[in-house]
Amino acid sequence: MKQFEDKKVENAMIDSLTGIDWHETTPNFNNLFATGAELMFSPLSQGLEAYVVKITQGEKHFVLKVWNKRSKPDVLRQYHLLEALQLQGIRVSEPIGYGRTETGDAVLLIRYHGTAVTKVSPSIFKRITAVLADIHRLPPEGLEGRALAKYDFVGYFFQGIEAFPQ
Prior knowledge:
The chain has 166 residues and is α+β, with helices and mostly antiparallel strands. It has helices at residues 2-18, 27-34, 75-87, 122-137, 153-157; strands at residues 21-25, 40-43, 51-57, 60-66, 95-100, 106-111. Residues 42-142 form the Aminoglycoside phosphotransferase domain.
């Protein structure tokens, strides 16, 4: 039964890849589909915001996230932020493509370079801390434009508060 479900998911993902309107892509995106090599799809553990699947093509691995749940973040901004962080030398996932499904859900395709953290150790915490420290050392001016958003604190966290004048 599990094999049938995996095949069903794989067929749905192949269909959904062709149904994505890609708005931003990198040369690696074109290479992914130009080779004609077989793509293997494996569902990954989902979070609260998106459906996640691993795509394997030979020795290359990618992750496709489809925000088809209630959470609707600015995925294009995430794509640009990953690009900008990479240009600054920060070790983050390489963005490959951004688009929208036929139903309007945002999609992000990134390079897959590892595994989920399921067991923590001091060395893992050190690596995570080093990446976060690198990000916080960046001057915001280097990320201005499409990658870095500025929001009014009250309006962002308390949407609709103006309806309560108290």
